[in-house]
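As noted in the main text, all predictions were made from sequence alone. Below is one such record, for ABC transporter permease subunit.
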Amino acid sequence: MSNGKRPTQLFRNLSAKIAAIPMILTAVVVFVGCSVWTVVYSFTDSKLLPRTNFVGLDQYERLWGTRRWLISIENLAIYGVLSLVFSLLIGFLLAALLDQKIRFEDTFRTIFLYPFALSFIVTGLVWQWILNPDFGVQNIVRGLGWDSFTFDPLYDSSIVIYGVLIAGLWQGTGLVMCLMLAGLRGIDEDIWKATRVEGIPMWKTYLFVVIPMMRPVFITTLVIIATGIVKLYDLIVAQTGGGPGIASEVPAKYVYDLMFQAQNLGQGFAASTMMLVTVVIIVIPWAYLEFGGRKHG
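Prediction:
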């Protein structure tokens, strides 16, 4: 009987499976194929054009001995940690406030989500103007009488990455808010009623009841934020161009510059491979938590 069901299950939704074949082939050829090609050629001394002259780990040794690459990793770590923490914190707080059935909720939700509709290029240019000391925040505050006020993060190499962080949070927090709000709206109303009857404070309800129930939402949100952090490029180019000097360099910009400006494909491939490894480190735990944990549960 079971053998008779297998062919039936195989041909179930046949049209949908056939329609998915081009997408699957594209993903396999473009993503997997290009990733393997990049990794293989990262062990060569390719310059302007790829060539199969293998040099072992020389490109990786040179990469991790380059000050510009180390600065880019440091910047990405600072930006990544702070972006994860503040995006989740601010996004959840905004979602919790909107979940109180406030008036004009749709208007507030649209306002908070609107920056996400803008590209990173537009966001970077907007915040470049806002943080410009000649006609931005610093100039406005000094015009109000505080002549000693100084706020020019994009022109200070020691804090430039925090200026970029402000723009990134402004754009991305709205999406986090919407994801968290969807998770909050999925909480059964009876749970809220039960905590009120028991006299549990609202902050304890959120901390010990609601947040654990929203675990899948938090995991998905973390992966979305983390993958966006790894490929950070547009915002840097539009806002600082990697400056002052190389103070705001990030790995994605390093890869682009090495491959298309310095014409050093081998070094660019090595840096790309390290970025790929970072993405894999993020995706594998997420896949295990989402699918492996659910299967075992």
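The two ends are 29 Å apart (CA to CA). The chain has a mean pLDDT of 88. These features were considered when defining construct boundaries for the mutagenesis experiments described in Section 2.9.
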